[in-house]
Each structure stands twice: as C-alpha cells, then as structure tokens.
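name: query_chain
kind: protein
chains: 1
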Amino acid sequence: MANRYRGTIYIGVTSDLLGRVSQHRLGLMEGFTKKYRLKLLVLYEPHATFESAIPREKQLKQWKRNWKLALIERGQSRLE
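structure:
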C-alpha cells in the first residue's frame, strides 16, 4: 500500500486482499496505514498459503527503499 506515487510504502500479509484494502481505504485499520493515509494498492503477490507469504513479507521489509520502488514500478502483479 502507498499514499501516492513513490510515497510512503506499507508491506503486509492478509488472507483477504480485497477486504483488507477496503479496510485501509475506509480508515478502519488503526496504525501505520491510517496515520500515513495509505490507500493505494500498488503491488500484490499471491501465495499458495499464508505460511509461504510470511517469509516473503519479512524479506521485503528488509529491502532498501529503492529496491521496493523498483519492484513496484516493474508492476509484476497489480490489482486495479
């Protein structure tokens, strides 16, 4: 999630992507995404299981910002 083009980035995991995006857009989720008004889904990566998604989330959170932006801009998986 992001607040604008090349803006603040949030990385998270959910088993209900559309529901979670809706919660963020409506400001129902307290914390980081609400504080920085992150309402744009800029990239998603589907995984077979929640357990397989967790290591990828941790990996991405350790990446440098410019690596994350490059991944987003390549746009390998997008939901409009």
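note: The chain has one domain: 17-74.
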